[in-house]
Structure of WRKY transcription factor 31:
Amino acid sequence: MDKGHLLALDASPRPLAFLNLPPFHHRGTMSADHPSAGGRGRRSSVEVDFFSDDKQKEAAKKTPDPPPGGLAIKKKADLTINLLPAATRDDDDEPKMQQQQQLPALQAELGRMNEENQRLRGMLAQVTTSYQALQMHLLALMQPQAQHPIPPPPPPRQFLGLGPAPEEPSNSSTEVVGSPRRSSSTGNNKDLQAAERSDSPDAAGGPSSTAGWLPAEGRQQQEASMRKARVSVRARSEAPIIADGCQWRKYGQKMAKGNPCPRAYYRCTMANACPVRKQVQRCAEDRSILITTYEGTHNHPLPPAAMAMASTTSAAASMLLSGSMPSADGTPMTSGNSFLARAVLPCSSSMATISASAPFPTVTLDLTHGPPSAARPLAPTTPQFHLPQAPLYNQSTKFSGLHMSSSDGTGSTPPSAGPPPPIGIGLADTVSAAAAAITADPNFTVALAAAISSIIGGSGGHHHQQQHGLQQGANANNNNVTSSSNNTATSNNTNSETQ
DNA sequence: CGCGTTTGACCAGCGC
DNA sequence: GCGCTGGTCAAACGCG
């Protein structure tokens, strides 16, 4: 199936030049565009020989320089074009006649490949649809839960509730805490701000942050619960900020008590009124650890990379708020609990903790345990918390995670090794390795491909979800891999050091 | 000149 | 009631 998955990717309009998939050596799928072929003046020989072992050898002879490593998969059209010259060239020992005879066979092969591509595309589309449906269903299920748990005291302050302010009673049970909004909604002009917020898409339902960008209903519901929850990610990173695919603008910096490192405040600038904010601060004990706390939900569509992170954080927040995350003693976590409990996040318990003691319920994903960032191999045995988002998350951020999980669980995959999609891990992974991972296209590609293959060929349950996520990511990535990098770079550039 | 960051100030919540 | 702290604003500043 790997082949199929790759093909699916291949089907995307964008040349997957970044797709560096050594492990996936699929004769048929490797198009003539492979760097080894396309890059050289004489691609024809390679292309023609592509389907023949013997010829491959021959080609190898002719092309001393090894392929650049990137596995570029192109559209058949390109392949065809590349093939033609082969037949006409007046190259040395290869008789034209012979090549011409091969043409039909090659073309037939191409035809088959095309068919398969089409088929895979169809599958992908189906999976995507299924994923979306599942996601919505999940949201629907989660929301009610969020309302059941101990009803937290009604929000002390009221948001100038224009419209469906998240805090509004309807599902405000999730109003977990004096949310961050508290300050925002505070005082004078702040009231105004609050008003704006409620007015703005943000308040209106802009939600989707965490869950990426969700359409209307889901968003609304989700936002209510998510808004007050925070998802904190601890990861080792030298970068000043985590490259999560979103665009952030720094609006403040403060010295926080008990930490010599300043805390930087960022807000999402991908949309005018996006309510999502994040705080970035280095760990006092270990400054190599970057603590990023996300809050709020995006009220705008997100790029794949951002979606991954958003989805992950959203999922974590949802669980937290919904009480679906059992505490250490097995009782459901509620916003009311005032202690640190180990969350049963997919990842090991040591990686995710829930803190309700803080003003806001916070899920902390700690990725600092173990090898830093991208290269860190996560335990393949980690419990799985298969949320649709996980894949996305991994995909967009840290591909290592995907790679690991999908590749075979061996975790042997290089730079980007990572465990499966446990949210926590993925997230952490993402965070910690974000910069490196995203900028490292090859890894990204590998992980993506691996993830897709694993998902498709893997388990059935979340199969669709993952696939969808991947698919989205894949498609988007096809167009956005570079943009992701750009975003990342932008973020890094635009965001000043927090210290 | 526009955009983003820096930084001091302001405000509200909370604890004592 | 006061002080501390967190969060945000907005003018000033710097950079491309």
